[in-house]
Design goal:
46% of the residues lie in helices and 12% in strands. With 248 residues, it is α/β, with parallel strands linked by helices.
Length: 248
């Protein structure tokens, strides 16, 4: 946990993600990524020089079979206020609209529900659980499927809602997240989404796995290029003069 918190702190510092007095909501889906983010930020909160507070917010898709009570218990253990928003996003997409490509609309509707909840709470900053592998995959998805050199940004200000999104897990690999979640027995809630594992992202994930087997530093080269090129808002603070992290 100390090593991963160190990587989170470095990412937060490199991109100036947290300021003194911030109220930060963590979007908690119940998956390993968001739960790991929640616990690491809760640990960082104890000693970070810029004091901040945390809240956890879950958007329940209404798919059924998802028990978030263990997540609520985890939040109580870490003294983090927890809110679950009940929606019918899942039934709308899969039963009513019967979307052939549901992921984009699902993300848009979940984002809308989340931002509405933040507005009601008066919170303007949210931490999302995108990690190192998500960034590499998103970059390659944009390149291969859209012909664009693009990726989400470490820090994104949404002017329509006034919400700032931060992604403190960008220096942590998916494998490290999985290992951590298993080691500390995080209460991961299984995703019953019908589209899970049948997406363009999954195709890219499998492609990267093949390339990584042939070129072991493939992901590090991609991630490093995103920072050195740099993509918009991807250049880390150069004041530390530290080498880029080698994430494995």
């Amino acid at each position: 946990m100390q090593r991963l918190m160190g990587l989170v702190r470095r990412c937060v510092d490199d991109y100036h993600m947290i300021e003194s007095g911030d109220r930060i909501a963590v979007g908690v889906s119940g998956g390993k990524d968001s739960l790991t983010l929640l616990v690491l930020l809760a640990g960082l909160r104890r000693f970070y020089p810029k004091p901040f507070t945390l809240e956890a917010v879950t958007v329940d898709m209404g798919l059924g079979g998802m028990d978030f009570s263990p997540v609520e218990t985890l939040c109580r253990q870490w003294e983090i206020p927890y809110t679950k928003i009940d929606t019918q996003i899942g039934p709308i997409i899969f039963q009513y609209r019967k979307e052939k490509n549901p992921c984009s609309m699902c993300a848009k509707m979940r984002r809308g529900a989340l931002h509405e909840a933040l507005a009601e709470k008066g919170i303007s900053k949210i931490a999302l659980g995108h990690h190192y592998d998500d960034a590499v995959e998103t970059f390659l998805m944009s390149l291969i499927f859209e012909g664009r050199i693009s990726c989400f940004e470490p820090v994104t200000y949404l002017d329509r809602t006034g919400v700032t999104q931060i992604r403190p897990l960008l220096y942590i690999s998916e494998q490290s997240v999985s290992n951590f979640a298993q080691r500390v027995s995080l209460p991961v809630v299984e995703n019953p989404c019908p589209a899970d594992k049948h997406t363009k992202r999954q195709e890219i994930k499998e492609l990267i796995f093949q390339l990584q087997g042939e070129y072991p530093d493939f992901k590090n080269k991609i991630f490093g290029a995103m920072q050195r090129f740099p993509l918009p808002h991807w250049e880390p603070d150069s004041s530390s003069r530290r080498p880029l992290p080698d994430v494995t």
